[in-house]
Fold:
Amino acid sequence: MDSGKITNKLIGDSYPPGKKSTEKKALLDSYQKNEAPSKLDADVMKELQKILSVSTDLKASEVIRLERPMTENEKVRFKTYFPKLDVDKAVVTDEATARYNCIAWSAGITDQWVWPPFMYPNLSEDKAFDKFYASRGFERAETGELARWSNDQGITHGSISGPGHGPRWESKCGQEARIQHGFDELEGEIYGKPDTFYTKAGEPETAMPNRLKGLSEDIKLVVQERALRVDPEVKKKFDGLYTSWQQFQKDPKVCISANPADYCKTESFKEIVKMGGSVIPLLMEKMSRGDIFSLQAVEAIAKSSRGPERALKLSSKELANSEQNKAYNALMKWCN
Structure:
C-alpha cells in the first residue's frame, strides 16, 4: 500500500496524481484552512506508524520517521518564538540541526542550508526565491502546498503541507527542530506571515543544488597546519571574538532564522572581519569543521581586501549553491 494513500486516508484527505487543477486548488485550500485535528498530531502519527509497520510492501525508509510531542523545554522555547503556536498540539518531526534550513526543507532537501538571495545575488530577493523554487519543480500559484513568509524586513521562511508532511503544515525552524503546526501559528514578529504560494509543477533539476561535497582528510590536514601557523596573539584575539559571535548565534531570535546574514549582525563579527587576511586560516579551520556561517566572514574579507584574499571571491556558478558547498569551494580555492 502506498504510504501517501495511507496518510491521506488517515487524515481524511485524498491527493491522487493527475487531479484537475480546480480540484487540486480546493484540496490545497483545505490544507491551509484546516483546524488542528481533534486528536493530537502525535497521536495521529502513532496510528499511521502502526499501519505502516504492519504493511509488507513498504520500504523501511518509509516506515522510520521521527514523530513526537514537544518536550517541556521545547514548548517554552517555541512559545517564546511563536506566541500563537499551540505547543501542546505541535509535533517534532526532526531534531534541531544546522545541517539544513526551512527553505531547503520546503524544497525537499535535508542535507544542505540554502538561501536563494545569496545563490543569485544579481536578482531581487523575490526573483531569487522564484528561481530557486523553479529549480526544484515549483511554480508560483494563487494557492499552493508551499508557503513563503515575510516580515517588514523581507523574506524570512518557507513551510510545506500535503501528503508526506503530516495532517497540517511543516516547518524547519532555522537551527531549531522541524515541526508540524497550524497554517498561521508561526505568524508574528520573527517570520511575519505567508505572502506567496508555490505548487509542484514538475521534477527538480538534478543540477540544483549540487550534491553535497565533502573535504578529503588531506585537505583537512592542510587547513589545520596553516591554522597552527597563525600568530598566537592574533589567534587569542580571534578566539575571544569567535566565542562572542557563537554566543550571539544562540539568541532565540537569531537561531530560528534561515538567512545566514542574520547570524552575523553583531560587533564581534565586524571585528573579526576587520582583522582581515590574518584570520583567514582560522576561519577556514572553522569551516572545515562544519561552521557554515564562518563563510560570511571569509566572503566579507575577500570583498574588501586588495590583497591575495580577493582570490577567494566565488564566481556566479560557485555562488549558485548551498552554504556547505560554497564553503567547500572557498576552502579548495584557498588550499590550492
Residues 3-200 form one domain.
